[in-house]
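Researcher: Can you fold this with beta-D-fructofuranose in place?
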Amino acid sequence: RVQAHKWYPRFHVAPRAYWMNDPNGFSYFNGEYHLFYQHHPFSPEWGPMHWGHVVSRDLVHWEHLPVALAPSTEDDADGCFSGSAIEVNGKLVAMYTGNVWTGPDHDTDLKQVQMIAESSDGIHFTKRVEPVINEAPEGDIHPYHFRDPKVWEHNGTYYCVLGSRTKDHQGQVLLYRSDDLLNWAFMAVAAKKEGNGGFMWECPDLFHLGEHDVLVMSPQGVKPEGEKFHNLHQAVYVLGELEYGTGTFTHGDFHMLDAGFDFYAPQTLEDPEGRRVMIGWMDMWESEMPTQAHGFCGAMTIPRVLVPDGDRLLVQPLPELAELRREAVSYENQPVTAKQTFDSVNGTCLELRVEVNIKNADAFRVNFRSGSEEKTVLRWDKKDAAVTLDRTKSGAGVSGTRTVKVNTESDILKFRLFLDQSSAEIFINDGEAVMTARIYPEETSDGIEFEAEGEAVIERLEKWELHSVFSQKG
Ligand code: FRU
């Protein structure tokens, strides 16, 4: 059983076995949250894509369901690629990309079209055999790389955004409209970026939040700018204003949605309370994937809530995740100078909240998943006004550091860590930044140590064991 493996996630959505990548069709239908995902049900390697499926009543506890979509028609024979889902007249309608290889080179020899499948129960889907968008529009638009429809409804009309690139390989997003989800009219290239925008924009998502329209997407090949954009694949957002009449989307520059290593192709939904909830693939194409040798690969992040904050978004863990909390320990007003540990503050599967006063400190570090040879280090350095996540000693395969600037005007630094068997998600200062990393330590590496240069005072420290979220009915 792969679920018993030391690296198999306990409170993250992961396939029962074999391969997972992007979240797909993230939606609320008949009182349940549906989450589909890119899945290869026959191997821990990427291959002909199916849609795996999990369902939840609360976004916290999940149940596996059978594969929802499999390659079966002339147009999706080599893969049911990423897409979205929307409720229409009591049915759940999935819109996805059909992929066919036309030769051996997966970069040039492909045909992509957009397809529809419908379900009355949210579980069994019937495909429309004909694609609803058969070819890419005219203009400076690459004819084949054209995928990942995200559909939404606005004032009685359906819209969708599609990932695309220009003919000379600059990422861009296409906007379409439709009255019935079957006949689609191309409106405009909604967004592209001069300069360092990457060669392909995958998995776009567009929604209104607070004062803005937000475009989320996953550009490939953006080059590093200072501490930003150090992953070949990453997820960004831009804030702007979509003019629905013309399809013109006026927008600002890229902001990273996650400053860590492993966060890609996120998708969002609006929940019944009006919150914008996002889930991402907790991996990335060029990441090390040592679990493949053990028959499984890929996981989703925890659900995250996007909260508008002026010209930025805060990214916060879904509050309901508190339901996973079991044994708790807490400490208050603990000065930290040299290396220090606290009774019962350790483990492999936990939530840790730390509020530390760093007024008199030059550096503050939390080492977690620490053992005789291993540790993953989260450190704040006054001289850089930044937090760095260091996984050079995090275990099998992984390496490197990622850094993000943080605001410490209040002298208080807040960390909230979610550790699972092979992952860390770190929310900084109420969602000002988040850093996600896969790590592959030994199970015995379960220590947590705190260290400071100068004196830091941990004003509050709380730790909870977290429990598993899956029931295995499917
Ligand atoms: C993003 C992506 C999508 C594509 C899917 C294929 O990770 O490359 O663009 O639809 O994965 O699995």
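Model: Folded with beta-D-fructofuranose in place. The mean pLDDT is 97.
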